[in-house]
Amino acid sequence: xxxxxxxxxxxxxxxxxxxxxxxxxxxxxxxxxxxxxxxxxxxxxxxxxxxxxxxxxxxxxxxxxxxxxxxxxxxxxxxxxxxxxxxxxxxxxxxxxxxxxxxxxxxxxxxxxxxxxxxxxxxxxxxxxxxxxxxxxxxxxxxxxxxxxxxxxxxxxxxxxxxxxxxxxxxxxxxxxxxxxxxxxxxxxxxxxxxxxxxxxxxxxxxxxxxxxxxxxxxxxxxxxxxxxxxxxxxxxxxxxxxxxxxxxxxxxxxxxxxxxxxxxxxxxxxxxxxxxxxxxxxxxxxxxxxxxxxxxxxxxxxxxxxxxxxxxxxxxxxxxxxxxxxxxxxxxxxxxxxxxxxxxxxxxxxxxxxxxxxxxxxxxxxxxxxxxxxxxxxxxxxxxxxxxxxxxxxxxxxxxxxxxxxxxxxxxxxxxxxxxxxxxxxxxxxxxxxxxxxxxxxxxxxxxxxxxxxxxxxxxxxxxxxxxxxxxxxxxxxxxxxxx
Length: 485
What we know:
Largest sheet: 7 strands, parallel
Strand order of the largest sheet: 3-4-2-5-6-1-7
Structural class: alpha/beta
Strand content: 5-15%
Number of domains: 3
Low-confidence stretches: 390-485
Distance between the termini: 74 Å
Number of strands: 14
Oligomer: single chain
Radius of gyration: 30 Å
CATH architecture of the largest domain: 3-Layer(aba) Sandwich
Mean pLDDT: 80
């Protein structure tokens, strides 16, 4: 279905034409007519399906027809992160190019000047306020912002906001608004807590679900089953030849992101890091450089797994397996956007095989296992059952080994060490040694075992182990045998 088949004003259609938007996505086709009718709606759609435009366009149409003669805040969009707030504002700027519509973006992390700009924008009566929950509450409590004239409330990525603990904040913001309003809720999933929230703040909503919890079919998904030490070698092979498309490499911790970005820079790759320790100005600088091709590889935490709308990302790499299947969907959803194609590669080390298999079951498909580059050597076998449960099954290392000593468990190593100690105790004394007095064979065997144990401890290099080894050598024979075990 085409946008010009909708009952939208000419000014909006002109903006869509300039942006080369013609055909609607499924989520837009199913939700825009309902929103134009004034109905409340629950929209469930995966990332990258065009849901921002699905509520932006009908909202702009209503604001254009009604105007804002009293200069009040007429609509509020609540989002979980500043990055998503900025992205939505950019969409508004494009779609409303021919419209006299004002927007104010409200989020934390800036200086006092930013606070004043946000406060002034809302007090002057912005048509659209796009805000994160915490910052909006701060303005409600300190800036005298009036939300009593709000006619349209939109909650975007509601599931993530609840996961981040914003449930009470959302209800507090809603309490400042009139009950008679149109409310639109978009979420990637519909768990019970989202449905409970919908019952509280929506009135007889229409529910639209599009491809719930399934990755975009245009994404070529694959995985490398590897050891942790092989991951950098794989990246070196992947980027051995220059590429024109952008890449995001996701890692699960900001410390790992910092270390990985530093290492990749030393490999002469054009890399920038994105994580929560950066100031807002630094984040904006990094994202602008990435968007303008000054940086073509972004190493990031899940801070950019949602709300970053850059269309020419050709590859997403999961350096670590995401903790939750839904995080996997959001991460790889950064590629293959706006009808484009893309690739998603996940590095799966032994301990992460259980988590990765959970993702495969969640998306109801087996992800292709790619052959490792010859330069990194042979990897472990894919045996996720050995790592089920906590992702690191009991005895899983020995089960997941490759037959060359890799992946052996601590219990196996201790058993081998005991075997060596027993062998030492039963070995004949050197020929030049003087025969031991009768009845002293046990202490002599214990000394031999202690010598071997101390040698192994020194090899491991730990001060604590060396100290314990010296204590064991001075202990009585019976206690020495315990120490060597």
